[in-house]
Amino acid sequence: EHLFNLKFAAKELNRNSKKCDKEEKAEKAKIKKAIQKGNMEVARIHAENAIRQKNQAINFLRMSARVDAVAARVQTAVTMGKVTKSMAGVVKSMDATLKSMNLEKISALMDKFEHQFETLDVQTQQMEDTMSNTTTLTTPQNQVDMLLQEMADEAGLDLNMELPQGQTGSVGTSVASAEQDELSQRLARLRDQV
To answer: In angstroms, what CA-CA distances link 90 with 87, 107, 174?
Structure first.
């Protein structure tokens, strides 16, 4: 029952993410119309709404993935419980086999499994902390300006607004690339610790 509820929640979050994607596209269409009419204030409001919808879609998708991961872990635990019961039944009926089993190896294997599970919990917590620290609910002004320019370009119109100097896509890309490299290095260090 809990497993079903978790899977249902993950699907619901995924649906909400798609809904936000649709609303973002609708806001972008409204931006184009406002720019064509020359109403920059309304275009800016729609741009802020589009950015906010995009961020919400990402957050819903992220939460869906996290809930889905929990559901998978619950499913694994349920399956492991069933397998353990089956194994217990087999062991009881096969005393001779039990005597020949190396209990030290079984114990060592279970210890290793528990250690890996704990490591997974630590890594999951670190990933969640990182995601929550980087997630913002504000709409950065440079994203709004870039979206306005993009919508004006798609509409084939000249947008008479001054963007801050030095704002290019390559700078944003290099910053994102540097952040990605740092995250990759941290993940490699975590793997080495295991």
So the answer is: 5, 18, 58
- Residue 24: name the closest of 121, 151, 162, 160 by CA: 151
> Structural domain boundaries of the chain?
1-100, 103-135
Whether this model's pTM surpasses 0.70: no
pLDDT in the model for residue 174: 54
DSSP the chain: -HHHHHHHHHHHHHHHHHHHHHHHHHHHHHHHHHHHHT-HHHHHHHHHHHHHHHHHHHHHHHHHHHHHHHHHHHHHHHHHHHHHHHHHHHHHH-HHHHHHS-HHHHHHHHHHHHHHHHHHHHHHHHHHHHHHHH---S--HHHHHHHHHHHHHHHT-----PPPTT--HHHHHHHHHHHHHHHHHHHHHHHHH-
Residue that is written with structure tokens 């740092």 in the block: 182
